[in-house]
Design a protein that fits this description.
heterodimer, A: about 575 residues, alpha+beta, seven-stranded antiparallel β-sheet, five-stranded antiparallel β-sheet, about 35% helix, globular, B: about 625 residues, alpha/beta, three-stranded antiparallel β-sheet, about 55% helix, about 10% strand, FAD binding (chain A), alkylglycerone-phosphate synthase activity (chain A), FAD-bd_PCMH_sub1 (chain A), EC 2.5.1.26 (chain A), FAD (chain A)
Amino acid sequence: KQEILKWNGWGYNDSKFIFNKKGQAEFTGKRYRLSGMVLPVLKEWMEKSLGASLEHKITSRAFLNTSDVPPSIVNEEFLQDLRATKISYSQEAEDRVFRAHGHCLHEIFVLREGMFKRIPDIVVWPGCHDDVVKIVELACKHNLCIIPFGGGTSVSSALECPADERRTIVSLDTSQMNRILWIDEKNLTAHIEAGIIGQDLERQLGESGYCTGHEPDSMEFSSLGGWVATRASGMKKNIYGNIEDLVVHIKMVTPRGVIEKSCQVPRMSTGPDIHHFIMGSEGTLGVVTEVTIKIRPIPEYQKYGSVVFPNFDRGVACLREIAKQRCAPASIRLVDNAQFQFGHALKPQVASIFTSFLDGLKKFYITKFKGFDPNELCVATLLFEGDREKVLQHEKQVYDIAAKFGGLAAGEDNGQRGYMLTFVIAYLRDLGLDYYVIGESFETSVPWDRVIDLCRNVKERIVRECKEKGVQFAPFSTCRVTQTYDAGACVYFYFAFNYRGISDPIHVYEQIETAAREEILANGGSLSHHHGVGKLRKQWMKESISDVGLGMLKSVKEYVDPNNIFGNRNLL
Amino acid sequence: MKCYTPVIYKGLSACKPSAIKNSVLQSEQVQYVIKQLSKEMGESTDIIQEEAIEILDEMGHNLHIGAIRFFAFSLSKIFKRIFQRVCVNEEGIQKLQQAIQEHPVVLLPSHRSYIDFLMLSYLLYTHDLALPVIAAGMDFLGMKIVGELLRRSGAFFMRRTFGGNRLYWAVFAEYVKTMLRNGYAPIEFFLEGTRSRTAKTLTPKFGLLSIVMEPFFKREVFDTYLVPISISYERILEESLYAYELLGVPKPKESTSGLLKARKILSDNFGSIHVYFGQPVSLRTLASGRINRCPYNLVPRHLPQRLSEEIQEFVTDVAYKMELLQIENMVLSPWVLIASVLLQNLPAIDFELLVEKTLWLKGLTQAFGGFLEWPDNLCANKAVTSSLALHSNIVSLVNGQVVLNDVGMEDGATEELVFKQALSILMCGAYRNQLLNVFVRPSLVAVALQMTQSFRKEEIYSCFNFLRDIFSDEFIFFPGIALKDFEEGCFLLTKCDVIQVTPQEILVTERGNSVAVFLAALFRPFMEGYQIISRYLSKETKEAFTEKQFILGIRNFAFQLLEIGSTQCYEVLSSDLQKNALATFVRLDVVKKMKTTNGFTYTINKEALSKTAEMFDSQIPIRKLVTARL
């Protein structure tokens, strides 16, 4: 699988944004709806919003220079023991570098221009739960450090190897543990090996007419075990729930032994739920090997939708009302004006004059007839799922509420494009990197009454910090509300800037991200809604969960893994 | 007609005053308090709501451009007539203009006269800047037509005391915050709370300041700009009124007819006014790293919340910082120097000598960082002469000697000599006081040197610390930085070659002796005043007394002393000094303040009193208050 993925960027090798010979942006490959299309206005948007220019290009090196890679240091006795288990392994530089990072900006930057100080010494591919047990036993015996690796889509520096780790680092790649072990149609559960990748899981379950409904934006590449280890959240959580709602049973291998419950029940009152020590443990306690997860019959009907609001405040008020009435569709997202305009920049070339005429008409209707300010308006994208009739009914209910907040239905197409963008936007960062633009996304959760203030303040803080740090072009700083809950919402920020003229862009970038996180916390937001803490946000853990809380987690770690075999040093 | 198109806050959602009132009334904050009160008092919410509406109406501003034009027109006529000129720092205006567009702005002018806010609004109007809404005292409302006019030009009114009234507090606070949050207009109020009768900056009040800071604490706004504004008058309109007031002749209630009587002022000359707009200070920058965010994250934002100690401390610091910035930019006129010299050379001083000493003081003031406005084109002689002419109601030139006038009551009733003398000294003192703000640190070092009669730095510092503590209601000191203040005082003295500082000792230079004497003499009235008051208290026999009784008592006591000539300290008659002293004694636990059904009463702790009195009176070395690490 490693072969079809980029080694120094996001996603598939064949899919990327390029500027073609005519200087127009194009998305290559065949995998996405946008693939093979020309995006005529993207270039202009990049020039206008980020001050990027096609003339200033830097290209990443094309291949990994294996001589730069830190040597693999593995004790021969361990290798002998490992060979005896017949578990496949590798000490190749490419394999080790591939598993030395996630997808934080600074990690990608290092891949393009430098080299990590520390990477795994050896990669192992256990094929099943028992293999994992053997590896962990060996690691304990030889005092090695294990870092579990699933899909490698972490954005919290969770996969980075601690630079001062002197022991041999074993990257435990779960990708070969990817079978659905059984499906229980009576209880609607499935027992699955934790290494399975999201899209494979959904496809294979689909063959039997089921789905989990768990769709994080990274689902093309992220793994079930990774979801459990970070407390993941899926786009359609309104119907299916987040990972903690989906999981029925977890099996995890720790240095102390295997932890699991004795039954597979919907709920039990047996003290604090041990699943909650595992979910969000970020690879510090052990390796999740098998998970029993709830499944649902594939819904009969799906429908996208979108609503235009005169401004962000009205949009948030509408989402709040929808959450209050508990009638949120499978997914509802509200993007702010900047992101709405950005979405337009990714519009493919229009096929016929007729469509462009229609687009013009729509625009005229909304801005002139309805009086929406094009620099204020924002869009909510919707996804409904279920029985056809119920979906239509549900749709009407939501549009009726939206109308009370000045929202105008803006068509299925806009909605669908919004969701498609979620998947391709990650590719866009690689394009930006070629033109001195660096960017990242981060998220938080916040009570309803503070959503608007938080969004405004964080965006403003980013703009201000950029200015103070000498960034010469105004940054792209935008947000969207991506999930609604009874008591609050999840907010997602995108942030990018042009770093021409700055000598140490990554350092500047990190300072700004830190400031943005400070701002989030000062506005009553959380440290993370679903990305996790990793090493990137560790500094705020104590403040977030109190001294005692941190002590509790530490004492669990102390008991489960006294020798710090799972030594990625995340979280605590 | 002037075209008035001010720049506005970028996040402004335009709305009318009535809409603001409505949104205040409907706000969660006010509704919450209404419900609470209704539960506690068993009254229906409608009745309390009615009450809230009344409060709002009584309070609310009603900005009308017509009223402003009228005001601007008449004010420009009046100002032109009574003031020679009004100077404004243009770059300050530009910065303000910039600030108004970025974030909500709070204007914090100094308060010396009724003219302050009229002048400020007028200036902003003529510079095409957004007119502020002003928190003014309710006493203006009593002025029939004028009150309404003020309201229409943006003033809103607050009761002087409403500590106990929760509904009033909630409505008022929400009113201010609503205007701030949606950037309706800059908010203006006086940190000092009231006009300073003595021209010394009064210690700040924190209530309004904490209200305007709250939206930022709760992150309802990204930032708030605080703009310190210093308004300096060459001659204060109310100068004699203040002196009477300080001496206990009751203050006339503000009334329209009173204002008309003030017409005779129109024929008078009040010199020039300097308005200095300070650099807008970002509250966010001030707060960075100081505020623990937790308290605001764990309680819904509309609930009334007691300020945490940390926040209270922060508000206090900001208030003092702003007042110090005001002081820094106060413009000192030549007359301020003349008054200071004159008061040390009573009853009369030779004109030539006065000029010479004034020039000498000018140099010293500049060295201490005073913001002096000296007419460059004039020779010193002329500058002094013109100052004397401007203040001819206080001083006159008789046979080459400059003397204080006896200011009599207008009705010609024969007053006691002491009273007359006191009036002119207090008037004069109000100008000298402007200098004290700048001189206080080096001067207190000089006083400490005199008191301790010692070279030992440690001893001098502990005396300085004692004095700073005693006078912290009298002058503005940033809380908790005694050592820094001391070092600054020493630095300025060293700079002027008055003292030499070694690691252990402080030595007065030969040349510096006269300066040190002058500096100490500058603060003599306060030293002596406090001494007399502590002497009075040690003679006080009553078990408990009220503030009123205290002031009457001390006044009689001082009158007697002055009549028999055993003191020359007329300023002890100032009720301002008396009240400050009382507050100081309360703070030092010399006097105990107790709340009773009708106000406060005070009792004396004789033991503590005698200790403090000892420290004051004597040249006895002062016991170590703190072991400072120098």
